[in-house]
Structure formats: structure tokens, C-alpha cells
Amino acid sequence: MTTVVLLVAYECAVVLAAFGGRIVGDVAKRRQLRIADHLDQILGRRMSRFPRRYRAVLLGRVRHVDLTGLPTIGFYTPELDEVYIHLSLTYRAPSDAGQSVLDHFPPDVTDRHALGDFLDSRRPVALAIIGAPGSGKTTLLRRTARQICQAPRGRRRPVPILLFLRDHVSAVLASPQVTLADLVRETLDRGVYEPAGWFEQKLEAGQCVVLLDGLDEVARQDDRRAVASWVQRQVARYPENDYVITSRPQGYLSTPVNGAAVLQIRSLTDEQVEAFVRGWYLAVERFIARTEDTAVRRVARTAAENLLERLNENPALLDLTINPLLLTMIANVHRHRGALPGTRKRLYGEICEVILWRRQESKGVSGALSGDRREILLRHLALAMQEQRVRDLPRPAVLTEVEPLLRRMSPDLSPEEFLAEVSTHGLLIERESGRYAFAHHTFQEYLAAARLHDTARAELLAATVDDVWWRETTLLYVVGSDADAIVEACLASGSVTALSLAFDCVEQDSHLDPRLRSRLDELLTSTYGSGADTGAARLRLMAEVTATRQLRALVRTQGGGRVCLRPVTRGLYRLFRSDTGAPPPDGEVAREGAPEPAPGGPDNELPVTGVRAGQVVAFVRWLNGITSDGPGYRLPSLPEVQDPAVRRGTAAVRRSMPAQGLWHASDSEQDRPRLWVAPGTPDPYEVDAGTMLGRVGDDLRRTRPALVRLLLLRALVTVHVLLNGAAGLRPAPGVAVEQALDHVHDLVQTLRHIRALDPEPGDRHTALQALADGLGDAIDGGAQRERAGATAARLQHALVDALRTREAVDRTDAVGLVLPVLRVPGLILDGDHAFDRALEQSMGVALSSTVTRMLRAGVPPDSWTDSFARRFALRTWDGSTSWRVSPDDLAHRAREACRTIHGRDLTAQGGPAELCWADVVTRKFEQAALSAFDGRAPITPVIAGELRIAALCLAAEADSLGAPEAGTDFRRIAIGATLLEERAHGDRPPGEMIVLAKL
Q: What is the pLDDT of residues 453-467, one digit of tens each?
């Protein structure tokens, strides 16, 4: 029995052992297969080309700028890398973020961060980036994905995942447990196969940057909550990755993502706007030329500067450029639709369409009301606000205005729902609690004009031509439309506001009856032109019309001032001159007497330049005197002209003109404006000594007869000394014959140089030479004094006649002011060095010493002009290299310097003051200088040369009299004469302009 039991037990054990072995074997096999499969997946993921193909596909998707939904798209869409501007982020609570497409940040919000500063750090981050429509949220994510794909090496998280949440709402709602990896897998292109578990492995390893765009584009709020919850679950499931979620502020405020730090995209800066425009045009021109060389860059630079200039000249358009989407649209419209601002009506229309519906519909996002109907309702609201003369309305008033029209369009949609929906687009915003306004007043004006077109109510605009509130709406209305009724109403009114509007309507490409156009032309013709017979009242009316039109565009400075962007024009300044008799600006004097340019011609529209400080003050006073309504004008302060907005707004005209500065008010002297010159720009009032002395040389070389007159005068002084001095030929004891012969020798040498420099027909100089030789023979031969004296007297009369003849013939030489010939016989000679003093009394110390040194140096006659110019410059200049002289100071300096010379006791110099050279010349010089410096007469090269030579002679005279301050003033006057000559004749075109500010 025991044996049987043992046998049965043994058999059972064998059976169980065999069965267990088979089980263990099966388990081992399954484990082997599982391990092999796992190893295969690891090797597949590591050896697969999928990561490279995935990056290539993603790079292709985000290669170009996204222009989806824009009405104007050119033949080429730039690549993102070509035009992308690095957007800045700032920490901002969603409740503090504005909804407007033109959101402005408070002054105390100054921090700026790049998205890259937060990503790929040791600690993973979850960021919610909020921004208004068009602020660049999607572009920021696309650019980030592109950067990671282009340079994955060395990054902690080298795998970008870019999902547009609107495309996955259905999947999330159908299966809330769907994973991020599942959704990414759905986005792969056909033919691109993921190695099994590749995305899960990367997400679990924390190697991804997850970019989730458009939480606000999930239309229904319940759906948006579900998607936000799903995002939170993915962050919890894969916590080691970076997450970036974008949304409009209002959409995020209602469905936030817990744990995400909130950042808002900042508006574009001026520098970013300029960089984008330049990059955009370079990309387009590079594509056209299929290369990038100097010529391509030049074309692109010209086109970009054209757009930037037009933006700076139009503040309403410039305001829009802080939004990247609107800036892109502006660049597109300007490039492909025609130059702005002529196409601004089309631009505003496209902006409204894109913001209200085109952009959203292109993404497959629709609203309860079609986009065109939304716009019609906003047009209705905008016109109601215009008629009520308000920029915002309380919520109840908005609902009341839209309700009647909304009922006809969509009975099931309540006004509250419509307002909630349309507010998310950023065109109509809740500016403050319970009050709604358009993002920019320009949109209100455009939409109101469009509504007037819809309802054919031009009569409303014709009835409001005297109301500046309706001006922009009227101008937008008449673009491409019949403007007859409006212009006729303007002419009937005859007010400044109405006439300004009429001329502006003509410039808006409006349709206008030729008879009305002729009436406007006649108004201009009756005002401009030297032959126009215009009454004072009509002239001032048209001046105010011109000022109103040209000075309307204002820019607000950082200090709160309002500065006119357009400089004062030549046309407006000519009206000031016609009314007041003011002198013309520097540079325009040479054109005096010529007929005025045609009315409204391009010359009248150019900035006036060359107006001196005193006339700038007079112009501002006149302008305020003719301005009937509203605040007047003033010169801007120095901080205002240096303000970035003002410099940006005037940069275009300063580049196109020889612009060298802007007038601004002085802090210390109310009636003494100062000139601001941009850094790196030459000072318009600075003249280097080399330029001035070069002009002196030209004066003397150009007037060779002047040297002949100087030598004739020296000869006359020599004869006068022989007749009347210590070596005189009249009876006087103790006279040395050798001394007289020295003077005669000097006289003969002088006359020989005269003959060489001026071989006069008729042999007048030969006769003079013969008399001088005869005089020398008489003295050397011991002839009687009476006979020698008679010869000298004949020679004296002959020299006086020669000088008079030369003075009559050479009225345009450079020494006209410094050679008072007829006073030589009256000189009183006594004491030592009588001859040198006589020369100084006849032609001043500078000319006398220069002539004497030339003769003693034996300079050949053919080198006299160049050598004399050099020696004269060395004698009269003080070594300064450059001077700055204001034209407004010249008359005052001339008076003061001449008064100093008048006040000196000159009787010791050889006779009564009225006979002293310095006294006589200063009187003549003062009269000539004041006439030239007041700006009423043209300063010709001859006048400038006379003033230059005379001023330098008087400078040397003042130095010799112990009056160095007067000497410095005279040298400044010589510089000033050079400056005015160059400004008058185009060698140094005046560039200082007048820009005004509002009081």
C-alpha cells in the first residue's frame, strides 16, 4: 500500500514537474520576446532618421511669414528669418493687459525679456504668453520652433512640438485622456513614420519644448476650459519639459492654465519698426534680383526709406506700426497697392476686415455673426459716436445703438453677446470699466465714413465743413468719390476751416467738377506771385488756410508738447513776406526780382531754409496774429527738437534737403532763438580759416587792377613825401640828397611794377615813368629845387589823374573801401619814419606793409598776385583755424567794432581824425556792412570781397591801436561776409529749418 502511494506521488511529481517546466519555458520565451522588442525599439529610435525628418518637416511649415487671411499678398512672401524682429516680453497680470490691437504700456512697465531667456534652463517652465490680436504670438512660437530645429545640439530640450490648439479641440473633447504624444503624432505628414514610442520617450525624458498656440481660438468657453484642463494634465504628466501657451488676454483671463507664469508681448519700438521695414524690402528685392549686391541693397534701402518717411509724416499711420500684423499689412499695401498715405482708406478697410474676420476665418475659427455683418454693426456704431462727438460710450449706450440693426441681422444673438464677441478682436475695446471705444480714433472715423457711403448721406458732411471734428471722416469719404457738394459748401462758407478742407479734398483723389477746381486754383493764383493784386484780408485768409493745412500734423513729445511734423514751407513764408515786407531768406536773395513760382507748385511746398533768428521770431508773431481760432504757435524747446518722435518725423526732410538744424526757443533769451544741429552734422555757421583766406586770395587774384591802384597810391605818397617831408624839394634846410634819391629810386621801382602789371593803352604809365626818371636826373644832377619841385608836382597831378581814372574804370575791385585817394595831398608829415606813417595813413598798416615787403623782396611781376594774397593773409590773420559766426550778429559786431575805432585818439597818427585812414574807412565800411548784413540786398561776390578785405585791414589796424577785441570782431565779420556769400550763391546752401509747436 505504501509502495502504491509513493508510486502515485512520484508520477504526480513527474507530471507536475513537466507541466511546470513547460510553463517556465513559456514565460522565459515571452520575456525574451519582450526584451528583444524593447531593445528593437531602443535601437530603432536611436538609429532612425525620424528626428532629422521631423525637424525638416517642421522647418518647412514655419519657413515663411504667415500672411494667411490678408487681402493684399504680393508675388513673394518673405521668409521668417529674413524679416523677423525679436519680440520683447514683460510680466503682466492678465487683468492688467489691454485688449486693443494698439495696446500701450504704462510708463512704469519697463522690463523687456526674450522668450529664449526662459527656455532650456535647468528648471523647466510653463509660460502663458498673452497679447492683443496681431501682436505676434503665433509668429513668436513659429520662430522659436524654427530656432530649435536649426540648432538642436547643445540644448537640454532639443525637440520642438508646435500645436495649434484650434485644430485639436475635437480630439480633446472626444477623448479627454488623449496624450500630447498622440496629438503630435496626428500632425505628422503622410510618409513620415515615428518609431514606436519616440514622442513618449522624449516627453518623459524632458527633452521637449511644447509650443501650444491659440488657447483663445477655442471658440466656446466650455470647450476652452476643457482644453485648458487638458493642457494642465499634460504639464503634470510630462513635467520636465518647457511649455509655452499663447492667448489673447480676455480668452486667457476666463480660462487660465494653473501654474503658468504670465508674460505679455510688448509693442514694437521705433527701432524694431525700422528694422522690419528694411528687412522686408531687402527680402523682396533680393528675391526679384535673385542675388544681393550693392545695387539691390540700394533699391531696397530707397524703398524702405520711402515708406518710413511717409509713416513719419502721418502720425495716424505711424501709430498703427506698433502692432506687428498691422505693420506687415502696411508694408504689403505700400509695396503692392501703391504709396501711402494715398491708399490709407484701402489700408484701413483691409485692417478692419482682417481684425474682425479674415484672419480668424482663415484659421477655421468662426463666430456667431459673419465678419461682414460685424463690420456693418461697427460702422453704424462709429457713425453714431461721430454724430454724438464722443470717442467712447458707456456699455448701455453701445447696446442701445447696435440692438435695432442687430435684430434685423441675427434675431437670436443678443447685443450683450455681440459686444462680448466683437471685443475679443481688439478693434472695439473696453478702454475703462464699462466704457467702450475704438482702438484708434482713425478706425472710428474710417468706419463712420464707410457707413455714410452705405447710407448715401453726403449732405451730413456738406453741412459740417466748418467743424474740424468731421475733417478726417470727410477726407476718407471723398477718396475716389464725388466731392462736389462738399467742396461747394466749403467755398460757400469761405472760412479758414472750410477752405482748408476744400484744398485737402482735391488731394484725396476725389471726383470734382472742373469749375470747382478752377475756383480753387483762382484762390491760389490771387495770393501767390509778385504780380498778384491781393488785398491784405484775402492774403491773410489764405495764409491762415495754408498754415492750417501744412501745420496740422502733430506729434506728441515725451514731455507732453505737441510739435508740428512738417517744417514751415517756402509758400507760407512768402505770404509772410508779402504781408510784412520782411527780407528774403539767405539763399533766396539771389533770386529776387524773378517771378514767384506757380501757385501750389513744388517750390512752394518745400521747407523754407536760410531764415535768420530775428526773422524766425517775427514770423511766429505774424502767424499767431493771423490765426483766428485755437491755440497759437511757438518755437519748440531744445528737449522737444531732440525728442525721438520729432527727430524721426523730420528725418526724411532733413535727409532730402541740405538740412543742418532746427530753430528752437532759448531758455534765457525769449527773442533769441538757438539752432539745434543733429550730431555728426556740420555746423551751418562755422567757416574754417582756410576757406575764408582762400576767398581773400580769389578776391585779390580776380581784381588785379586793385594791385595797380595800391602801387599808384604808394607812388603818390612817395611824391607827396618828396614835396612836403624832411627830404622835400621845396626850400628846407638840412635836406640830404641821398634820402631824396632813395625815395625817387623807390618811386621808379614802383612805377616799373605798375607798367608790368598793367600795360595800359595810351602809354599813360610810360609818361609817369619818364617824369620819375626826369625827377631823379634833376636831383642827382644838382638841379635847382624849384625845377625838381615842379617836376614832382607834375608827377603828383599825373598820379592823381591815373588813380581817378582807375577808380572810375575799376568800380568792382576788392580795395574800393580801403583806398580814399583824394585825401593824400592833405597828409601832414613830420618826424622820423614820415614815409612809412604816410603810407599807413593812406592805405592802412596791413596794405602798406604788405606792398612795401613785396617791393623790397623783389617779387617778379608775374608772381605778384599770388604772393601778395599770401603775404596779406599772413599779415592780417591771427592764426585761428575756424570761426562760428551767426548772420544775426554781424550787423551788431560791425557797429561795435567801428565805434571802437572811432573812439580812439587818432590825431597822433598824423593829423585830424577826419583825415585818418582808419576813421574814414570805418565810416565807409559801417555803411556798406549794415546794408549788406540786413538781408535786404543781395551780397554779391564783389561786395563780399570788399567787406572781407576791408574787415581784415581794419582788424590789423585795431591790433596796432591796442584794441584786440575790435580786431577779433573785424575778423569775425570777414568770416561772416564769406558765410553770407556762400549761402547766397549755392556754395553752402542754407539748411536751417523752422519747425513749430502748439501753445
A: 888 888 999 999 998
The Cα–Cα gap between 287 and 77 comes to: 10
C-alpha cell at 130: 498673452
Cβ atoms of 513 and 484 within 8 Å: the answer is: yes
Backbone phi, psi, residue 429, to 5°: -130, 160
Query: Mind listing the pLDDT tens digit for each residue in 377-422?
Result: 999 999 999 999 998 899 999 999 999 998 888 888 888 888 888 8
Which tens digits make up the pLDDT trace of 813-828? 666 777 765 455 555 5
CA angle 986, 992, 994 (to 5 degrees): 135
* 151/93 Cα distance (integer angstroms): 33
Q: Which of 60, 83, 53 is nearest to 325 (CA)?
A: 83
Amino acid at 756: A
Say what the pLDDT of residue 760 is.
60
Higher-pLDDT residue of 70, 962: 962
CA distance 933 to 433: 63
CA 379 centroid distance within chain: 36
Instruction: Indicate the residue type of 640.
Output: E
* Whole-number Å distance between alpha carbons of 753 and 857: 13
- Cα gap 600→595, rounded to integer Å: 14
CA angle 646, 652, 655 (to 5 degrees): 115
DSSP 564-621: ESSPPBHHHHHHHHHHH-PPPPTTTGGGTTSPPPPTT-HHHHSBPB---HHHHHHHHH
Does residue 930 register a pLDDT over 50? yes
Instruction: Provide the β-strand partners of residue 263.
Output: 91, 129
> Dihedral through CA 160, CA 161, CA 166, CA 167, nearest 10?
130
Residue owning grid cell 525620424: 50
CA angle 141, 142, 148 (to 5 degrees): 90
Q: pLDDT at position 531, please?
A: 46
Cβ contact 470:387 at 8 Å:
no
Kindly list the distances between the CA atom of residue 829 and the CA atoms of 88, 149, 840, 911, in Å, as whole numbers in the listed order: 87, 100, 12, 9
973, three cell numbers: 565779420
Residue 513: all three cell numbers together: 467738377
Backbone phi, psi, residue 731, to 5°: -55, 120
In the sheet where 435-438 sits, what is the strand order? 392-394, 435-438, 428-432
